[in-house]
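Thread: "does anyone have the structure for this chain?"

Original post by V.I.:
We have the sequence but no experimental structure in hand. Need at least a predicted one for the grant figures.
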Amino acid sequence: MSKLKTKSKNLKLENILKKLGSVVVAYSGGLDSAYLLKVALDTLGKDNVLAVTARSETYPYSEYKEAVNIAKDIGARHLTIKTSELGIRNFKENPVNRCYYCKKELFKKLVVIAKERGLKHVVDGTNYDDLKDVRHGRKAAKELGIRSPLLEAEIGKEFTRDHSKVLGLKTWHKPSFACLASRIPFNSKITSEKLNRVEKAENYLRTLGFKQVRVRMHDDTARLEFYRDDFRRLLRVGVNNKVVRVLKRLGFKYVSLDLEGYRTGSMHAAIDKRPVRV
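Reply from O.Q.:
Generated one for you, tokens below.
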């Protein structure tokens, strides 16, 4: 990207935030929300920005802890609220649009917080590249007037990562993360036991050096997604045996490697009616 285009996007993002005036940032501690929080803070000042993180069964404690530390490093005001997606019947039943019900509940809480704190808008970290994927949560955002400054400024993931590095944010090389519910096939009920099992399995795999990993749960089978560059490391006899042993101890009867590798939204393949192309 040319320096001129980069400067243009930066200015566009700053101008969007200046017009908003004051914001509550839906903040998970991931690449996008951390970058948005930092730019909002630099643009609007500490008193006009509040980061809010939701603690729930669908996000690992390790992610929450990291989010708290990053917000502290940035120097932002930070508030933690508790949510329970498993208390939302339409979410727990795990329909294709489950994210709509989750985001609707979260955004409603953030709108109330913004009004109570005298902040004018609620913003989230949706970026321009997210338009390529199925995002049912976008409907909830539109219904409740949630703004997405990165999307509006046409800023994608690569831009966010590059500029996070320039700004000295620890999240610049952080892998993408989605809530643990995304590991469970649509229309298969989401339970705390399933979420807990997936969380423990993924935490273990990260201790082996696998940074981008998904443990997709298909009944008693764990379907592992890694970057293809990591296949060789996984298939080493010692590592392979450890992974199988630990995941079986967690309750999985079968452990399989997805040869397509890591990709977002892979659970949609089971409901996609289009012919499979290879």
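V.I.: this helps a lot. Residues 94 and 187 are 5 Å apart (CA to CA).
O.Q.: and The longest strand covers residues 49-55.
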